[in-house]
Amino acid sequence: MKLATFRADGAWRIGAVHGDAIVPLQPALDAARAAAGQPPEALPDSMLGLLAAGEETMVAAGRALAFANRPDQAALRRPLASVTLCPPLVPGKVIGVGRNYAEHAKEVGGPAPTAPRLFLKPGSSVCGPGDVVRIPPGVTKPDWEVELAVVIGRTAWQVSEGTALEHVAGYTVLNDVSAREFQFDQPLPMTSFAKGMDGFCPIGPWLVTAEEVGEPWQLGLRCWLNGELVQEGNTRDLIFSVAALIAYVSRYIALQPGDVIATGTPAGSGHFRKPPRYLRAGDRMRLEVERVGVLEHGVG
What we know:
Elements: E1 2-8, E2 11-18, E3 21-24, H1 25-35, H2 47-52, H3 55-68, E4 78-79, E5 84-85, E6 94-98, H4 102-108, E7 117-121, E8 126-127, E9 132-133, E10 142-143, E11 146-152, E12 168-175, E13 178-179, H5 180-184, H6 191-195, E14 201-209, H7 210-213, E15 220-225, E16 228-234, H8 242-250, E17 260-262, E18 284-289, E19 293-299
Helix pairs in contact: 1-3
């Protein structure tokens, strides 16, 4: 399933995307249960709640989507263009991973990492598809980074690499916007601050469940700036795999449903180009992860 948070008729709702339509899940579930002669069942009203509610609730959401997609249930579907997509969720925590693609690690320079290099992005940095990332006036080196983001579905605490993917709800696309002067030009690097400013974590356009994406070992990533392809890579170039990252982080931090791991970016971000290139007001970003989706947003 492609699960989305959207705004329509003055309210935020959760739904599932199918083709060029979106299905509001609660009305679809109500209709499906009524048709089967079953009593009503309330779904959580947020994506975090849906993930935290567990497998049975996700199964109910899948049944609601299947019912709404029947030819005689067109009234349960809305044109996707008629709603405003929001961030699929606002995570409890976003854990970023630096220098996790081999080619990106080469362009940054220095020794190859022997363990994941981690930082945090606060929930206030999250924005959604179609939003405009506002660059603070004092930031002169704002940069882009297309990333595969992993959304946790079950609590993961000290899990093994072999079982780590069992804790994944799904995946989304993330732009790890970074103010490079705070990351690289300070006597003491302030990576979380550089990457945690308001709006510096666009995610979306939806959350694609793990079974629909499949194994995350060979997913292509691409990023366009004003129509120009500036990044292209593949998750097979990851130094630490999705499973390895979950296992490593969970040794020290309990990952909860709705938490996000931003797995790193391939080569091609602006700071490491010759000459460097940074984001400017009016820029348009398009970021794609294979089998997950396309995230577009502006820069202001």
